[in-house]
Write a structure and sequence with these properties.
275 residues, five-stranded parallel beta sheet, Rossmann fold
């Protein structure tokens, strides 16, 4: 949805749906921000002034830390993604804190992350049913753009890894239109299984935060395997990360990103493949 088409009613409805599911009846607690401050705003611009603003990577992202009854840091996000000027609602679970497997809190932390992922899905499906702009619309828009943004065949195979299915399918449509062969995976376990088979992709677009096996573990396994050690990896994440702590990657994208930046980086990495 274009920002000028977004209304205060859209934002209020999105927050109401979020809170309804994040604090179901019988749960203690309340949102960690004052939603009344947002509710009294007369324009969307005034509302977004209450959000944290991030313009990294060439896109605009507005986030409001609403939390949920088990975790105070989950966020309601209004952001551009792939298409400049088009905004979508999403939930950022904001639970990417690393916990060692030998930590006494590891299992509880994993259960919390599963709860947050499930809650994110529930909220975003409810938004979609309420005809609010979500990644369902992002996928549809990407597939529509793919019909007109066609290029010659590249004879290169990409493996796109993203646990958000609509984002992954939108990316697939856009990149296939640019002449690439594209495969999808939605969690680290699928990636590990796929990389055991030939032919290998020419480039892996890897989401850092994934269920089952995280992006860092996938990278660690790849760099320990002589067959996969030199496979180019373009890392994508919504989180701030210390790249020095990661095994070698070929490039890094901060999510959300515009499709022009993604396509330019893929082309550059494939051009230098094998150098």
């Amino acid at each position: 949805m274009r920002l000028e088409e977004l209304t205060t009613g859209h934002v209020r409805r999105a927050i109401d749906v979020y809170v309804q599911h994040a604090w179901p009846p019988g749960c203690q607690g309340a949102p960690r921000v004052s939603l009344e401050d947002v509710a009294v705003c007369e324009t969307v611009d005034e509302m977004l002034e209450c959000f944290e603003k991030d313009e990294g990577g060439g896109t605009r992202r507005y986030s409001l830390r609403v939390g949920n009854h088990r975790y105070p840091f989950m966020k309601f996000v209004v952001h551009e993604y792939l298409v400049r000027g088009e905004f979508f609602f999403s939930v950022d679970t904001h639970d990417n804190l690393e916990t060692r497997t030998d930590s006494p809190d590891y299992l509880e932390w994993e259960r919390l992350k599963t709860h947050n992922r499930d809650l994110k899905g529930v909220i975003e499906r409810a938004w979609s049913e309420a005809k609010l702009p979500t990644h369902d619309d992002l996928r549809a828009l990407a597939e529509e753009l793919a019909r007109v943004e066609r290029e010659d065949e590249k004879r290169k195979r990409l493996l796109i890894v993203d646990d958000e299915a609509n984002v992954a399918h939108g990316l697939k449509a856009l990149l296939q239109a640019r002449g690439y062969d594209v495969e999808l995976a939605h969690d680290g376990g699928e990636v590990v299984e796929r990389l055991e088979r030939d032919p290998l992709p020419d480039l892996l677009l890897l989401d850092l935060e994934m269920p089952v096996i995280g992006g860092q573990e996938v990278l660690a396994r790849m760099r320990e395997n002589p067959r996969l050690r030199d496979l180019p990896v373009l890392l994508a994440t919504a989180s701030d990360i210390d790249l020095d702590r990661l095994q070698r990657v070929s490039g890094y994208l901060r999510k959300p990103y515009p499709r022009q930046v993604l396509c330019a980086m893929i082309a550059r990495l494939l051009e230098h493949e094998g150098e």
